[in-house]
Amino acid sequence: MGRQLKLNLFIYPGGHHEAAWRHPKSHTDRLLDIRFYQELAQRAEAAKLDAVFYADGPALESNVQFATRFRIEPFTWLSAISVATERIGLIGTASTTYLEPYNAARLFASLDHLSNGRAGWNIVTTGAERAAQNFGLDQHPPHAERYDRADDFVRVVGKLWDSWEDDAVVADAGTGVFADTSRIHPVEHEGRYFRVAGPLNTPRSPQGRPVYVQAGSSEDGKAFAAEHAEAVFTAHQSLGSAQEFYSDIKARAAAFGRDPGQLLVLPGISPYLGSTEAEAKALKQEFDELTQPEYGLGILRKLLGIDLDGVPLDGPFPPELLATAGQAGSRSQLVLDIIRRENLTVRQVLHRFAGARGHYVFAGTPMQVADEIQRWFEGGAADGFNIMPPWLPGGFDAFADEVVPILQSRGLFRTEYSGWTLREHFGLARPESQYSRGRHTPGQPGAVQRSQHSPGEPLLAANT
Amino acid sequence: MGRQLKLNLFIYPGGHHEAAWRHPKSHTDRLLDIRFYQELAQRAEAAKLDAVFYADGPALESNVQFATRFRIEPFTWLSAISVATERIGLIGTASTTYLEPYNAARLFASLDHLSNGRAGWNIVTTGAERAAQNFGLDQHPPHAERYDRADDFVRVVGKLWDSWEDDAVVADAGTGVFADTSRIHPVEHEGRYFRVAGPLNTPRSPQGRPVYVQAGSSEDGKAFAAEHAEAVFTAHQSLGSAQEFYSDIKARAAAFGRDPGQLLVLPGISPYLGSTEAEAKALKQEFDELTQPEYGLGILRKLLGIDLDGVPLDGPFPPELLATAGQAGSRSQLVLDIIRRENLTVRQVLHRFAGARGHYVFAGTPMQVADEIQRWFEGGAADGFNIMPPWLPGGFDAFADEVVPILQSRGLFRTEYSGWTLREHFGLARPESQYSRGRHTPGQPGAVQRSQHSPGEPLLAANT
Predict the structure, then answer these.
(1) Is A303 among the domain residues?
(2) Number of folded domains in chain A?
(3) Which domain holds residue B46?
(4) pTM, 2 dp
(5) In this structure, is residue A33 part of a structural domain?
(6) Is B147 labelled a binding residue?
(7) Which of residues 195-214 of B touch A (CB under 8 A)?
(8) Is B453 annotated as a binding residue?
(9) What confidence tens digit (pLDDT) does each residue in B105-163 have?
(10) Which of A5, A64, A206, B411 could be a cystine partner for A117, CB 3.0 to 4.6 Å?
(11) Distance CA B267, CA A434 (A)
């Protein structure tokens, strides 16, 4: 079997299109019903997807007057999904700026235990300026400082996850030794931002550590991803842009001495499907027509620092305003590039970003969507995709029912899971505890506590 | 129906007896298997208990060489339990010293959403000195400061949970209004410890706020409980001690202008059951004989600050050592009182605390256990109990199968749930948002978003 696509279901409450909740196809009444999300994850698992993914941020950000932009708390939600599924990965976002490492380490270790090794961590430094005021800060730390802190954070949680070696739990009722404390290590981390004594207060989890995911596209973000990430989520509107990112980030990983194959590049795609291209485009148009300009203008105001009140929506983007636009990050740059390159009206810009906030929106037949995915996958632009359904649940069902089988028939996507953990789905190595290095040779009996292929096996082998 | 007992299942990994994991009755191999805990909660629900409860602390505390004293992370675990149950309450411990209020508010709101209104918060200031070093502090903040901080913490999370009024979500597809932002309030909290702008980033949860539980028995702890708590967990070895605590805490609540009936007193009890009293006592003895003195001595050393190495286990507690014992909190005092009052050998002291760390251990027939519960309940000592099974799962099964039916037949305990939320089980009022006061009169349509008696009803009423 050749190289295989990785596909995640990226879940936003109400779907990714900002006005999806107004469309009769949406189940807006179920947006806080966990069973709705369990069913979505079960459908994604039936389609053999790699993972479901929740974005997150510790602030109420967008204007919820017009959109379903409240937040689903990822740890609780993914824990509830974990027990309704068996194979699919569970990727949650957690901020290195607004969480304590010890708490984050516990939450992910527990999610990995609950799910028998399916946890993934989308490492973010939090873009939302407003978060700072929810945590007693006068202002959001600057970009570079946030990444410095993220680096320290990743190092300390890595130590915590490694602090119990895989075979630390002995559970020998006869001798009365529950844990071999010579295999449980204080971490004594003294970093620039964090001082943590450790050890963690829970045994090492099935994957050792959750899969490290990252989504920054800034210089700092790319440097961080190249060093630490095992998967990168990224937004591109064209094959060329994605190819450039792909080869850049893989080269950066290699420069850190890493195997570039252990860093997956996963752009987002928000697909509208129809039996003809025209039908798919008409469907997209239906959603775009439900948008409320006031909402999109608010997002642009925040992203670019420009006020478009009173500017005619169906006229061009005023160049003099554009000249004053600021850049709050890589997403602002992406928006400015598109406005400048394509000479869009204000309304066209609003529609362009209404679908998936700058991610690639594609309307076509199932064959066309599959072709586009294959083109990026084989064209050095992607190792797979985050699927971003415009609305829920139908926007995902259409993809699962109509596009996935085409990808499977082409031999590009699995028809059955071959492993149990997210690391196995993604083809990533299981990290050995840094504290056991030199003690065990890899593969030596006892070096890992459980077979990765036997989720039913008790985690604690009671030697009674 | 007369006054009804409240009964919680207090879950410790491996059971409350420190050596339970060594006993063949225990399922030590399932201690990290979420299905094991889901099954326990389902059994507790079948017995119509009020809640399951997890203690917690952000440090590895006791010596895991000899006991199963790792920690279950409560939010993830309770979320996974919530979706395997329908009625039973879910009480998790969270520290006001080592969590950020915004993060804690999100986690509990989400658990309350997931469970349709069954979340409870055991508010702790964290007793574990070692926790400080996991959070960059040189030392654990002093007792009084921790309680000051807890007071500020409770005030700010209360504001966050109230920040979305119950009817803030409109979801009117026709007008395009998803939320009435005049009913979503910044909290602008400026306390002594916390500055939080708010609002929370999620709609108000079914119970409004989780049930507030507290377990401190110090002066600061009792003052805090009297002002804020809706249930108090407490440890007493005798009816007299419990009666004294009961009347004191109820009087303190009244002094705050509160209805003492809205503050439940729930002592712990760890029952050993047998068909005769002798059989029950022999069962307890079996567990006590599995204890390892080194473990218990370590606990005493930490609790009392005295080193008993080399002291004969079957001799008396050396008075000169006792004279130097320090008091690290209300639990130390309880231990010292018992040692002094009962003139125990060192081994007897170790056995006394091996069962439930100072909570009441009672061995007897099901009838005797029911009698004892009734005696405390009707004797002004308890509104109910935390049931602390010595081992799992059988230590709880015995109570559920043999004691609960007796309490039910005496009309002291429900035979069916009458409500759906933990507040309903406990007979506690649902707090109105502090931001809606004066706007709605209680009971006015629209003042609450969902009927508390209709968990199947969509939380977001889509007016499409």
Answers:
(1) no
(2) 1
(3) 6-273+361-426
(4) 0.94
(5) yes
(6) yes
(7) 195-203
(8) no
(9) 999 999 999 999 999 999 999 988 889 999 999 899 999 999 999 999 999 999 999 99
(10) A206
(11) 44
